[in-house]
## 1
Amino acid sequence: MSSVASTLLEEMNRDGFVVLDRHFSAEELAEVDRELTRFFDERTEALKREGDSGISRAGEIVFDSHLAERSDILRGFVTSPKMVALTTALLGPDVDLYWNQIVYKSPETEKQFPWHQDDAYTPVDPSPYLTLWIAVNDATLENGCISVLPGSHTRGLIPHSQTPEGWAGHSLDDPDQGRPVPVAAGSVIAFWSLTLHKSGPNRSEGVRKAYVVQFCKAGTVRAEDRVPVDIQIPVSREGQAVRPHTA
Ligand SMILES: O=C(O)CCC(=O)C(=O)O
């Protein structure tokens, strides 16, 4: 492993997260941004027609998942050489795409997204897997950047309760509200699926746009019944990209 990769891993294992400032350039993100906006617009229209769905609420917070499975552009992005380099540095040589979704927060959204560990949604083995929270535009204190609770990944999976806004594992009223992580567009906040994180209200006049891409070790199973997680996009085997990169 290169020394850059081992420093990254050390930081992740110490703090539970690491910030890669402007990891993707404006050029690398331009097409991705357009594609994500297309999914956001379609999903928003559907939510307006059909009403709120799960934790998605049109005009407040919109999630839409399995996008790389439906878009060659996004598939190219999540399997790009940069992604292979980053994910193999943190997870080892055999990596799969586990999940990918937009999380777009509309302006003037007062609600915070609750503190949680991603593992709370579906506990898996091996745990933790890797979440890359990618800022598609600047994420600021005003528009609802995420906060992390440094070191919380060492606690294992903690009890969560279900709330209308999503699973919650640490109170929004707790005096320890962690560390806000404002980042510029193109930056990546990498964290383990056991790292507690939340996002703040969007009090700005624009949509806060995040693409959340999660990777797991090949062979990951659901902890509950040992059934393999549904993988449609393998990323790397023995440290090499599975698909030739075409995007
Ligand atoms: O981006 C956000 O506002 C929160 C998203 C999040 O925590 C998640 O997708 O797990």
## 2
Amino acid sequence: MHLAMIGVGYVGLVSGACFAEAGQTVICMDVDPQKIEGLRRGEIPIYEPGLEDFVRRNVAAGRLSFTTDLNDAVDRSQVIFICVGTPSREDGSADLHYVDEVARGIGRTMDAYKVIVNKSTVPVGTARRVRRLVSKELARRGLDLEFDVVSNPEFLREGSALHDFMQPDRTVVGVESAKARQLMAELYRYWTEKKFPLYFMDVASAEMTKYAANAFLATKITFMNEIANLCALSGANIDQVRVGIGSDSRIGDRFLFPGLGYGGSCFPKDVKALIYMGKTMGYNFNILEATNLVNQAQRHRFIFTIGSFFDHQLDGKTLALWGLAFKPNTDDIREAPALTVMERLLDLGADLRVYDPVAMLEVQKHYENYPYPERIVYAPTPEAALEGADALVINTEWDVFRQFDVSRLKNLLKAPVVFDGRNIYDPAQMKQAGIHYFYIGKPIY
Ligand SMILES: NC(=O)c1ccc[n+]([C@@H]2O[C@H](COP(=O)([O-])OP(=O)(O)OC[C@H]3O[C@@H](n4cnc5c(N)ncnc54)[C@H](O)[C@@H]3O)[C@@H](O)[C@H]2O)c1
């Protein structure tokens, strides 16, 4: 089958490479010429474990190619995936202007039956909106071509995207016609033959499923953070509570680790978009309003703990920061809690020595206009970040930090103080190592 992926970001590039791996012929189109030229030279624009091998292998096999020409991509493909961003607008709604642009572009160029698939995360009703935009462009050209619009939301996680795409818990496809259903079933046969579940449903339900999944997970994380905060106040041990509830199969033991809260390009915007969607229908999604607020507050609680330790006087203090990406195994810093921590600590007067295994370049770009560049030192190693630091602050639970020999911390830091926003160490071991150790849910009494 010939496929086009429109938008070559995390979702478009990973999906394109994976469909090619499954034997399809895929053309990836993006409006960013630098990205496409780079990909043609074999340069992968994002950090995603295993992606470079997938891309190289499938380009060499002639199954994967790149273009900036939408007409060419549409022309060559039976199934066209829309994979562009759907960021938050000021009011929390999903900004659909990239999706609209692609839909109009497809309508301006298609000249035979196509299946147009929304893989971007989009509110209920977007498939209908895409249909309207394509039809309008076709009408302008005096054409009345048959086409289908399908919803096929993506559930991959950055950092394990290839695994998630190749071995999904499920694939969800919302369809309106038997023809589109048949084509999508054929496309996903590689997976259904391997017994990975494929659920067909109506389009609105597929659109809602994506938001429901992300909002549920964001709420689960947030609930656990609230329990951790209560543990700190009550003297209960969050680790023991986590094991106690996680062993209940109705709850499950994943997504129960307390921390700095969720970030990234999906959970924050999808929670807000679902709240907004409710509002447009006269419905107040109260749980999600609270999820959003508590998640923001969680970062500030952590920063307050750091500030309190230094009597809110951080002038002349140097803090080491480990972890800048919003989670491990990615260089994505969109809505990363670490950025809030960095900015607030700088505001409070601290100098920072920061380290992340892969997100350093992204952070440097993000702060290139920061007025006091000398106050942020980009350290080449975790050890180098600790030099002369009055405390270590951990924002992201990279394995390299988990595996760090904590008995070395006391000698490497100027003062043996660690604020751990991801609870990666054993408090007993830290005590033994002579470290003043703060973590999420640490009993206050
Ligand atoms: N990143 C994730 O982990 C993830 C997971 C599941 C779903 N999603 C959803 O998938 C969608 C894409 O997310 P992403 O993280 O891949 O975004 P991204 O920002 O990484 O990539 C989007 C790409 O689309 C391109 N683009 C914009 N307008 C275009 C146009 N008119 N024509 C062609 N290309 C265009 C941009 O240049 C960019 O390369 C979003 O709706 C997101 O919510 C993301």
